[in-house]
Amino acid sequence: MDATPHPEPHPGPSPEPYPDRRTTPDTGLTERYLDATARSLPAEAQDDVRNELRASIDEAIETRTEQGEDLQEAERAVLNELGDPAALAAGFADRPLQLIGPRYFLAWWRLLKLLLTIVPVTVFAVVILGQSLAGAPIGQIIGQSVAAGLLVALHICFWVTLVFAAMERAGADAGAPWDVDRLPEPKEVGSGRSDMVASLSLLALAAAAIAWDGTLGLVRVGGESLPFLNPALWPWVVAALLVLIGLEALLAVVVHARGHWTAGLAVVNTALAVLFVSWTLTLLGRGILVNPALVDFLSDIGGVDRETWRILGVLLGFGVVGISLWDAVDAWLKARRAAR
Prior knowledge:
By secondary structure, the protein is mainly alpha-helical. The protein has helices spanning 29-38, 43-66, 71-82, 85-92, 102-133, 138-170, 193-215, 236-258, 263-286, 292-302, 306-339; strands at residues 219-221, 224-226. α2 packs across α3, α5 (102-133) runs antiparallel to α6 and α7 runs antiparallel to α8. The chain has a two-stranded antiparallel ribbon. A hairpin with a 2-residue loop joins β1 (219-221) and β2 (224-226).
């Protein structure tokens, strides 16, 4: 038996029972993400957001690594799922990333539609009227009126949107909260007997006025009658006007019989309006609508010069166009409501 003592083997470093498992790898991605998120936040909120976000990231990475995922791959996956740090910061700061959010969208849209319906059309008409009164050529009238209307529409869109975007950022109040009292009143869809009677009465008065003017005249001077319409328009040109009045009366009866406006009836009404405007503006443009003898008589007793008569003619033309346009638009609106 060998009695020579043998040195005991050196045990060496004992393995750690639990290896050091870092929750966040030493890649710097998490710190860069935290910096990018916090930099746009108020200074007093940055530390709290960083701590809260770091805890969430660590927990998500740990969950992935427990499922066997590589630490660095887990970190990248978690940060990718969190998304753009600027968007995340906007969420922490309750700062909207859209120009107009849902809180203000309906108020913005209603105001924008109202202004675009009224203001550009008004500017368009005013520019046409001003240029016409100034005696500008037709090309200049059309060009400047269209340009003015489009420019005003562009300004309305820009400034209204800018105001609401500023309200969105400032958190200003958009007005009283909605309640049932703000529901719109029901609008008339059908065509009642009173509508037909009113239309027929106005058309009958117009036809009677034309007949009166052609037979008895507007005024009598020295035993001679002076009609408003040019006597040279009788009988055929004035007869065309009376036919238009008769067709308008027939249309009123048909609409009443149908009970409501339809797209086809609105088309007929628009065509009649266009014919009436064409009849009036053509005669006005040629200077043969009004009786020349009446113009001379009024010029003598009132000292009205030719330029004043031209301005009155322009105003008369605008009145005819405005009334006819309103009549056509009203018919289309009623037809649209009836279709709904």
